[in-house]
Amino acid sequence: MADPADPTEAIRVLQKDLGSIEPDLRKKLRPALKTAAEPIVADAKVRASWSARIPRAISLSIRFSKRDPGVSMRVRRAVAPHGRPYEGIRGNATFRHPVFGNRDRWVTQQTRSYLAPAAESGMDGALAATVAAVDETAREHGFR
Question: Which branch of life, at top level (predicted)?
Fold first, then answer.
């Protein structure tokens, strides 16, 4: 049995519930979810301020699809192609790349994670704000 106090489990339950929300409720809920997640996005941009391109490439995505509902941060590859390796998406602490595109000379570089720490530090506040927004929207539409 899942622990109801576990934030990860609470997020999974919330994601499942978001996927079954009616379209008129989604319209009202989207701005509240965006407001709840904006502090995390702002924190990620500050954490990536060592790069000129990564902060501009970070955006927020809100989805209500049944298959993959939720709020997520994205880094547009067209704006910051180096964003993913620096985040350490594959779980590595380092990554390799050619020096100025010279495939004969490669270097190993440390990751500088910015998305995961921002999400971890802001998860409790965003989860509380999201739950409050869902409750308020549900109450406005006749749910108890």
Answer: Bacteria
Give first-to-last CA distance, the chain, whole Å.
25
What are 86's two structure tokens?
């620096």
Is residue 75 classed exposed, middle or buried when 0-12, 13-18 and 19+ CB atoms within 10 A define those classes? buried
Sequence ranges of the domains in the chain: 21-140
Output the pTM of the full model.
0.71
Q: Which residue has the tokens 């999201």?
A: 130
